[in-house]
Amino acid sequence: NRQTQLPGTGVDRNSHHDQVSGPLRALPRSESMDCVNDPRFMSNSVIAKRLAAFQTISVVAVIMVNLSKATMFNLEGNMNINTKMGVIQYLGVVIMTLVFLMNLTTVVVVVQQMFMTYRLLTTGPTGFEVAKSYYLNPNITTLRHVAIKMFFIALPLYVAGQSCMVVTNFAKSNNDASLALAWPIVGFLLLTSCCLCWVSNKQQSIFRDRYAMAKMHETPLLNHIDSMSSSNRSGFAGFVDVQ
């Protein structure tokens, strides 16, 4: 008879907990990926370092989602778009809705790609190559770039939307003198929003310039190494060639 207990423990080898319970069988997927202990998992890779940067963006995007959502729900629903204040208030709602949706999209795309990339990294000896093919897939790359672009666009939009909120709050006092105090703050917020756009575009421009410079200096070196390798192979082949 086959032994059904672990030696010296009295514990069954095949426990009923090893099988999926009845209610859990109705779930879409109940099997996980294989766990292979590869020493390479303990070392950092290029993909892991890039994902660490995206993790920071996802955290900030979650904060922006909460801030924009709180601002939307703090607005009054009885606005009259036939008045100037009603138009400004409605514009603020539209801007905050855009900020909310853009940051939420960033969170969904970045978090899901991080989750899937880390899972592929730990699939086994070929985990890095498989994760690399997923990370550099054109569809995945496009979604990631769009999500990051939306995140950086949402930041100045949020500041601009706050200017509408300032006008709306000052207008509640029904005092022209109090409302006049809001316009300098609005101007400062709009100026800050424009400055954020300029800073973001400037940094992206410098990044693209430095990346192009790195590739330009990298190409001659790689071509030289390839030419040396090909010449060495041809010389060695001619030496051992037998007619």
TrEMBL record:
Region Disordered: what ranges? 1-25
Q: Is Protein biosynthesis among the key words of this record?
A: no
Keyword list, A-Z: Membrane, Transmembrane, Transmembrane helix
Question: Which residue ranges does UniProt annotate as crossing the membrane?
Answer: 50-67, 87-111, 150-171, 177-199
Q: Which organism is it from?
A: Strombidinopsis acuminata
InterPro entries found in the cross-reference section = Jiraiya (IPR029201)
Query: Source organism's superkingdom?
Result: Eukaryota
UniProt-recorded name of the protein: Uncharacterized protein
